[in-house]
Amino acid sequence: MSQRLRSVVLVALAAAVIGLSVLPAGAVLHVFNCSDHPNGGAVPPTYGLRLDNLVGTGVFTFSFDHVDGTGSAMVTMTWDDVTNEIHIFGLAYGGEDTGSGWNAANSGWVDIDFTYVDDVNVQDDCAGSAGDDLYVDSESANNNGTVTLLGWGGDTVFNFSGKANATGCAFIADNDTDSKGNSTIANDLTKYSVSGWLMPPTDGYRDWLFVAEMGTVPVEQTSWGALKKLYE
Predict the structure, then answer these.
(1) Collapsed DSSP state (helix, strand, coil) of residue 189
(2) pLDDT at residue number 26
(3) Which of 22, 89, 111, 188 could pair with 148 in a Cys bridge, judged by C-beta atoms 3.0 to 4.6 Å apart?
(4) Span 174-183, mean pLDDT?
(5) How far apart are CA 113 and CA 76, in angstroms?
């Protein structure tokens, strides 16, 4: 990993640990390692985030699994089970999708930093049935974040907020169903199938589609060193 990318990762991890250090008594910060969903509508290549018409027109996808000579993608999701805040942050790689890869002239690394703070609920579906999955069941401007282009596209910072679909849900992290019907993901209780929608909308897709796997056994306390070692 290049020094620049490593610095961005460590800053993101530091932010996560700072957030953990001020959790109320009894709170647990659940940490998930995020990877591409294999069944996205625009694969190949696989991706965890799609933002069509981001820099110019066309399909734009970003991989959470990409590795090359300049670095490794690394995206983390955390959930505080007391405040119910969900935080998605880290590095991804992608850009204009050519059908088998990305246009070298319109692609690169991106820094993702997005937080859901409103209407995050532990339930089974968008209707609110009892369960242990994570659903954001409203559209709120307070659920927002940024995607920052690193060294391409003018280093532009794009701002997004959560967008509800027809069911009223804006974000879903479900560990017993999969939005694409992938039974391997749906039947693995350590993995959450994650989907969600973002705005401002365009005439293309702007949404999350990734797999979040439990990265640690939830504990009430951890340290910067312990979390950092997960990503070395």
Answers:
(1) coil
(2) 53
(3) 111
(4) 94
(5) 10
